[in-house]
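Researcher: Here's a chain I'd like modeled. Treat it as a single chain, no partners, no ligands.
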Amino acid sequence: MFVTLTNYWWLLIWMFTGGLFLKVFFSRKRELVGGQAETRWQMLPAIIMVVPYIIWAGYRGNNFGDTGAYRRMFSEAPNSLGQMSAYLDEVTKDKGFSAIVVLIKSVLGNSDAVFFLFLAAIQILCVALVFRKYSCDYWFSIFLFIASTDYLSWVHNGMRQFLAVTIIFAATGLILKKRYIPAILIILVAATIHGSALLMLPIIFIIQGKAWNKKTLLCVLASIIILLFVGQFTDILDTLLSDTQYENVVSDWQSWEDDGMNPIRVLVYAIPTLLSLFGYKRIKYEDNPVINMTVNASIVSTSIALVATGTSGIFIGRLPIYCSMYGYILLPWEIKHLFRKNMGKTIYAVAIVCYIVFFYYQMHLAWGIL
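Model: Modeled as a single isolated chain. Structure tokens:
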């Protein structure tokens, strides 16, 4: 039985023990991805690799992030489906998530550990299945997700929003194939869980097409203009959000003296975008639809993160996650395809070291945990 995780280095220790064992000793198979034959992990080892992270999320510590708030919400929710209607009448926003809480409690019982396990399983399996299919290095993609601390930030903390994020992320195949109607329906369902999911309605169109196309360049230009005219932007945003569930966002971040997203985290999110500029000619030559889309998604996430540095890290800084997940597919491809073999191996090793350093920085200095 897993116990409450208190030494967070175990998150990386599993990556370099169990994860590498699975990578080395399980054979991979060829399958079609975006019309091209690619080598991918088999399903069983891919799932085994993430199971510990699901269990750790279920038996998390009491004081990490919003865990206490979610635990109280679960304890106060009714445990009967017959009470759901009356309960939802009292909920003012994101009723889809409240309905899921009641459903889990009614069917699976009153254990909050089971509640956390169930949600973590949905989130992490959605991430794992997309990485397995679209990443050229599944192990490295999962490593980036863990070492960037996105796993802790979202699965152990902002899990309501991340549930919406991962549901949309699981629809990557639909977005790639431009099957917009089912993709939009999934986004609308996700928006009942967290209203910020509506941001993906325009984004699924913006990230289509060639890498670094005019739409993505407009995103970069828009982020620069917003940073230059932050005051006017916040006034416009305050007006647009009036009479919505987010009407107090601007006043809240101003009253809390929110000084914006940490520039170091912005740089971490921007690495795949910067490398795509370096390797633009190769990316254009390859014309891989998956890579084109992940480049464009990374540009969008970097643009939003830049805006968050001059506005709010608490509110705006929570939005890049809808697109930054694609960077963990893009970065392994860039290292493999944009550099000569020996240089690529060196950069691969340097990237691992740098992300471990960032993990330590985030955990010890930014959060004060390790």
